[in-house]
């Protein structure tokens, strides 16, 4: 879904950064993506090269860190692993867990020169 | 089909910027006009980079959400709508669920109580805006070209074309798509997802992001139920599993069945929005 728009937004963030800090080339862009989120990492990789062509991010490598899903169970009062948005607590079966991680969509860092 | 976003267009997104800049619009939020929204130049030009001689490689920590820009435009839209005391709903669904028919019916039934304006999102044509204008409501058509969703920047420009009356309703009809529009906040008060009974009852489980993002679900085309095997209770259970706070109305845009309950919800919410003192005025009072 909408991965092209998202990569465009990544490029915009990189351009923001270039206005603050002087660099001429981006070697690496590292993203954090939630495992339960709405973005398909392979689709991001697929369009990355095409979208960044002609931009400050052209030629950069794209690294994607997947953040595992976690959810809070109010019955068990503890954080449990979460593999789908509406999953029940694997301990007590209460549904749904309140998602606390796994929906990330962030640029975490980049390497520049 | 576009294999990037799944929309019914050949791959290669070259969305059009839908306007020229012959009118005033906000520039207090940082944005670019060199490329239109949703415009990606796959042809690409030369890199345009100056490689400095001896610059040193380093790592920069950014930690910013990818949708930061869209969210900033959405926040600006939301403030603008709240200050104008306009209650905005963002209608989302797959193509063919009856969004436009539902809006036409709703406008016809509510226009005597509320001034109503509409932003219509489609990839091409102004057919839907024409249908809305036939009801007497003001409508702006946003054509996204090959883009598969509306974003907050486009909607901000659409607002420039509407004279929004204080205490009015704004209906935004998103591009028919149960996937992408879920992620893009437009500045609305609530997202309303429309699901028709001619679709599968398991759609909320298949497209959980959309149903988790919405506050209201309209289960449309209820007049067709006698002819279908659609399991209403299974559908409602699926929606509540994805989103336990979902408010669900079973309606028929054709017969009007069930719509009074939805209208009552709109009336209550819009009245509350119209009575709310805008944040900016609150600040001035302090």
Describe this structure in words.
The complex is a heterodimer of chains A (113) and B (286). Chain A has a 3-stranded mixed β-sheet with strand order 2-1-6, with helices on one face. A 3-stranded antiparallel β-sheet of chain A has the order 4-3-5, with no helix packed on it. Chain A contains 2 helices and 6 strands. Chain A has one domain: 2-Layer Sandwich (hypothetical protein PF0899 fold), CATH 3.30.2320.80. The mean pLDDT of chain A is 91. Chain A has 113 residues and is an alpha+beta fold. In chain A, helix 1 (3-20) crosses helix 2 (41-52). Chain B has 286 residues and is an alpha/beta fold. Chain B has a domain at 85-274: Rossmann fold (3-Layer(aba) Sandwich), CATH 3.40.50.300. Helices cover 31% and strands 17% of the residues of chain B. Chain B has helices at 68-83, 99-110, 127-133, 152-160, 203-206, 208-213, 232-242, 259-275, 279-285; strands at residues 58-65, 87-92, 116-122, 138-143, 169-173, 190-196, 216-220, 247-250. Chain B has a 7-stranded parallel β-sheet, with helices on both faces. In chain B, strand 7 (216-220), helix 7 (232-242) and strand 8 (247-250) form a beta-alpha-beta unit. Chain B starts with 57 loop residues before the first strand and ends with a helix. Mean pLDDT of chain B is 82; it is low at 1-55 and 280-286. At the A-B interface, helix 1, helix 2 and strand 6 of A face strand 1, helix 1 and helix 6 of B.
């Amino acid at each position: 879904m909408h991965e092209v728009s998202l990569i465009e937004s990544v490029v915009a963030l990189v351009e923001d950064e270039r206005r603050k800090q002087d660099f001429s080339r981006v070697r690496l862009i590292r993203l954090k993506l939630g495992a339960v989120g709405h973005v398909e990492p392979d689709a991001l990789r697929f369009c990355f090269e095409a979208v960044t062509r002609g931009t400050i991010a052209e030629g950069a490598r794209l690294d994607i860190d997947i953040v595992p899903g976690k959810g809070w169970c109010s019955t068990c009062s503890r954080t449990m692993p979460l593999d789908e948005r509406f999953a029940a607590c694997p301990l007590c079966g209460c549904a749904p867990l309140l998602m606390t991680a796994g929906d990330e969509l962030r640029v975490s860092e980049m390497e520049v020169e | 089909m576009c294999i990037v976003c799944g929309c019914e267009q050949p791959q290669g997104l070259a969305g059009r910027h839908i306007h020229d800049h012959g009118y005033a619009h906000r520039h207090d939020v940082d944005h670019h006009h060199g490329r239109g929204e949703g415009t990606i130049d796959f042809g690409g030009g030369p890199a345009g980079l100056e490689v400095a001689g001896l610059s040193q490689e380093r790592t920069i920590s950014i930690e910013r959400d990818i949708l930061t820009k869209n969210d900033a435009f959405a926040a600006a839209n939301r403030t603008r709508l709240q200050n104008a005391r306009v209650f905005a709903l963002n209608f989302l669904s797959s193509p063919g669920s009856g969004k436009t028919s539902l809006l036409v019916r709703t406008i016809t039934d509510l226009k005597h109580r509320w001034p109503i304006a509409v932003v219509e999102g489609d990839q091409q044509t102004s057919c839907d805006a024409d249908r809305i204008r036939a009801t007497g409501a003001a409508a702006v058509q946003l054509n996204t070209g090959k883009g598969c969703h509306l974003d907050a920047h486009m909607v901000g420009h659409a607002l420039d074309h509407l004279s929004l009356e204080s205490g009015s309703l704004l209906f935004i009809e998103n591009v028919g798509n149960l996937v992408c529009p879920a992620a893009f906040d437009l500045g609305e008060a609530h997202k309303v997802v429309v699901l028709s009974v001619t679709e599968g009852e398991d759609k909320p489980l298949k497209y959980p992001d959309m149903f988790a993002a919405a506050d209201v679900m309209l289960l449309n085309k209820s007049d067709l139920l006698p002819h279908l095997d659609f399991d209403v209770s299974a559908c409602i259970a699926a929606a509540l599993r994805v989103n336990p706070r979902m408010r669900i109305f079973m309606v028929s845009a054709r017969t009007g069945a069930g719509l009074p309950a939805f209208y009552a919800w709109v009336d209550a919410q819009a009245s509350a929005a119209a009575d709310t003192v805008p944040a900016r005025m609150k600040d001035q009072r302090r």
